[in-house]
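User: Is it possible to get a 3D structure for a protein together with its bound compound? The compound here is S-adenosylmethionine. I've pasted both below.
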Amino acid sequence: MGTSLRVRVRYFDDFVKKSIEKGLEQLVILGAGYDTRAYRIEGLEKVKVFEVDHPDTQHFKTQKIKEIFGSLPNHVKYMPVDLETLTLGQCLFDNGYKSSKKTLFVMEGLIQYLSQKSVDEIFSFIARNSGKGSAVIFDYHDESVINETSKAGKMIKNFLEQVGEHLKFSIEEREVEEFLSQHGFSNIINVSSKKYRNKYSPEADENRKFYNPMFFAHAMVDEKFY
Ligand SMILES: C[S@@+](CC[C@H](N)C(=O)[O-])C[C@H]1O[C@@H](n2cnc3c(N)ncnc32)[C@H](O)[C@@H]1O
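Assistant: Yes, that's possible. Here is the predicted structure of the complex:
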């Protein structure tokens, strides 16, 4: 899991960097946690960044950011939101989000903690409320984790339960394309652990284990929604 998480950060970083080169105007990080991209990726200081997170986690983070930088940076808007109970759209619009702008939505390590209803609402909102060239990148776990039918999945689910985190949502790899196209996305790329292993750790030997039930995916908002 540790190896896979490090590769996930790198993969998502590279995607954010490419998006900046292509003229990104807004970055929305859902379930931001201690994501530090807004403070360390060059070019993001010129992009409007929205960090959305559960109020408890975000409070701790903003305290830390103030300790480190002396104040909260101007280009980042912090939005304490419980995505299971509040509507993302209204909160974003209240905080200056513009649906005409080219936006990237990052959901790293998030959707597995949400209900199917919240996940559906978030993806539908993104497709219907973002400008030309907007995109989404996220990771997901397959059903073997929720159903505990793989050894790795069972271990992770049990470990997370011990630390009070309950997994609720999964997608089967064969269904991710349909899931995204039904919600209004195209140019869908699914990345299995084999693919991200080959991309970032081609030299890793057979004994170096990756966490196979975790996949990355990215897609563009379908043109018909602009
Ligand atoms: C595993 S952490 C990932 C954090 C960060 N994205 C990263 O990759 O390091 C999950 C994040 O999802 C957030 N989260 C979980 N349930 C949430 C909810 N209902 N509403 C908002 N955020 C939630 C948590 O507060 C936490 O920051």
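Residues 31-35, 53-54, 57, 81-84, 108-110, 113 surround S-adenosylmethionine (CB under 6 Å). The longest strand covers residues 214-221.
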